[in-house]
Amino acid sequence: MAAITITKQNFEQEVLQSKEPVLLDFWASWCGPCRMVSPTIDEIAKETEGIKVGKINVDEESELAAQFSVMSIPTLMVVKEGKVSATAVGARPKNDILRMLEL
Questions:
Q1: CA-based nearest residue to 41, from 85, 82, 100
Q2: 94-102 vs 32-47: helix crossing angle, rounded to 10
Q3: Annotated catalytic, 34?
Q4: Which residue in the list 34, 45, 77, 91 is annotated as catalytic?
Q5: 90 pLDDT band (50/70/90 cuts)?
Protein backbone atom coordinates (compact mmCIF):
# COMPACT_ATOMS: atom_id res chain seq x y z
CA MET A 1 0.00 0.00 0.00
CA ALA A 2 1.25 3.51 -0.73
CA ALA A 3 2.13 5.94 2.02
CA ILE A 4 -0.75 8.13 3.22
CA THR A 5 -0.53 11.88 3.65
CA ILE A 6 -1.41 12.55 7.27
CA THR A 7 -3.08 15.83 8.23
CA LYS A 8 -4.70 17.03 11.43
CA GLN A 9 -8.05 16.23 9.77
CA ASN A 10 -7.30 12.51 9.26
CA PHE A 11 -4.78 11.97 12.08
CA GLU A 12 -7.16 10.48 14.62
CA GLN A 13 -8.72 8.03 12.16
CA GLU A 14 -5.55 7.02 10.29
CA VAL A 15 -3.11 6.94 13.23
CA LEU A 16 -4.76 6.87 16.65
CA GLN A 17 -7.58 4.50 15.65
CA SER A 18 -5.44 2.31 13.39
CA LYS A 19 -5.59 -1.41 14.13
CA GLU A 20 -2.07 -1.89 12.73
CA PRO A 21 1.16 -0.11 13.70
CA VAL A 22 1.74 3.19 11.89
CA LEU A 23 5.15 4.39 10.72
CA LEU A 24 5.11 8.19 10.61
CA ASP A 25 7.63 10.17 8.58
CA PHE A 26 7.87 13.84 9.61
CA TRP A 27 9.49 15.61 6.65
CA ALA A 28 9.75 18.81 4.57
CA SER A 29 10.41 19.37 0.86
CA TRP A 30 13.50 21.54 1.56
CA CYS A 31 15.16 18.89 3.78
CA GLY A 32 17.97 16.96 2.06
CA PRO A 33 18.03 14.00 4.49
CA CYS A 34 14.21 13.80 4.17
CA ARG A 35 14.56 13.43 0.40
CA MET A 36 17.19 10.73 0.95
CA VAL A 37 14.98 8.62 3.23
CA SER A 38 11.71 9.18 1.32
CA PRO A 39 12.25 6.42 -1.30
CA THR A 40 13.00 3.97 1.54
CA ILE A 41 9.79 4.94 3.33
CA ASP A 42 7.85 4.43 0.08
CA GLU A 43 9.45 0.97 -0.38
CA ILE A 44 8.49 -0.04 3.16
CA ALA A 45 4.92 1.16 2.53
CA LYS A 46 4.64 -1.01 -0.59
CA GLU A 47 6.52 -4.10 0.65
CA THR A 48 5.54 -4.51 4.30
CA GLU A 49 2.26 -6.20 5.26
CA GLY A 50 0.39 -5.36 8.44
CA ILE A 51 1.58 -1.78 8.84
CA LYS A 52 0.41 1.62 7.71
CA VAL A 53 2.85 4.31 6.59
CA GLY A 54 2.02 8.00 6.90
CA LYS A 55 3.91 11.11 5.87
CA ILE A 56 3.51 14.39 7.72
CA ASN A 57 4.81 17.55 6.04
CA VAL A 58 5.97 19.66 9.00
CA ASP A 59 5.54 22.92 7.06
CA GLU A 60 1.88 22.17 6.36
CA GLU A 61 1.09 20.36 9.63
CA SER A 62 3.07 22.33 12.22
CA GLU A 63 0.49 21.52 14.93
CA LEU A 64 1.14 17.77 14.56
CA ALA A 65 4.91 18.36 14.58
CA ALA A 66 4.55 20.40 17.77
CA GLN A 67 2.25 17.79 19.34
CA PHE A 68 5.02 15.19 18.93
CA SER A 69 7.84 17.63 19.86
CA VAL A 70 9.52 17.18 16.48
CA MET A 71 12.60 19.42 16.55
CA SER A 72 14.67 17.89 13.72
CA ILE A 73 13.65 16.19 10.50
CA PRO A 74 13.40 13.61 9.26
CA THR A 75 11.85 12.16 12.39
CA LEU A 76 10.40 8.66 12.17
CA MET A 77 7.92 7.37 14.74
CA VAL A 78 6.05 4.14 15.17
CA VAL A 79 2.61 4.48 16.75
CA LYS A 80 0.96 1.34 18.11
CA GLU A 81 -2.47 1.41 19.71
CA GLY A 82 -2.36 5.20 19.82
CA LYS A 83 1.01 5.42 21.60
CA VAL A 84 4.51 6.14 20.26
CA SER A 85 6.55 2.94 20.60
CA ALA A 86 9.73 3.99 18.76
CA THR A 87 11.35 7.19 17.51
CA ALA A 88 14.40 7.88 15.33
CA VAL A 89 15.77 11.23 14.20
CA GLY A 90 17.73 11.57 10.96
CA ALA A 91 18.00 9.45 7.84
CA ARG A 92 18.19 5.75 8.63
CA PRO A 93 18.92 2.66 6.55
CA LYS A 94 15.95 0.48 5.66
CA ASN A 95 16.92 -2.31 8.10
CA ASP A 96 16.98 0.15 11.02
CA ILE A 97 13.52 1.43 10.11
CA LEU A 98 12.16 -2.12 9.80
CA ARG A 99 13.65 -2.95 13.22
CA MET A 100 11.66 -0.05 14.72
CA LEU A 101 8.45 -1.74 13.53
CA GLU A 102 9.29 -4.98 15.36
CA LEU A 103 9.22 -3.41 18.83
A1: 100
A2: 60
A3: yes
A4: 34
A5: very high
Task: Compute the distance between CA of residue 84 and CA of residue 22 in angstroms, rounded to an integer.
Answer: 9
Catalytic residue among 3, 23, 24, 31: 31
| Amino acid (one-letter) located at 90 | G
Name the amino acid, one letter, at 16.
L
CB 97 within 8 A of CB 23: yes
Handedness of CA 57, 62, 68, 70 (dihedral sign): positive
pTM for this structure?
A: 0.94
**68 CB-contact burial (10 Å; exposed 0-12 / middle 13-18 / buried 19+):** middle
Q: Is 57 among the catalytic positions?
A: no
Domains of the chain, first to last: 4-102 (3.40.30.10)
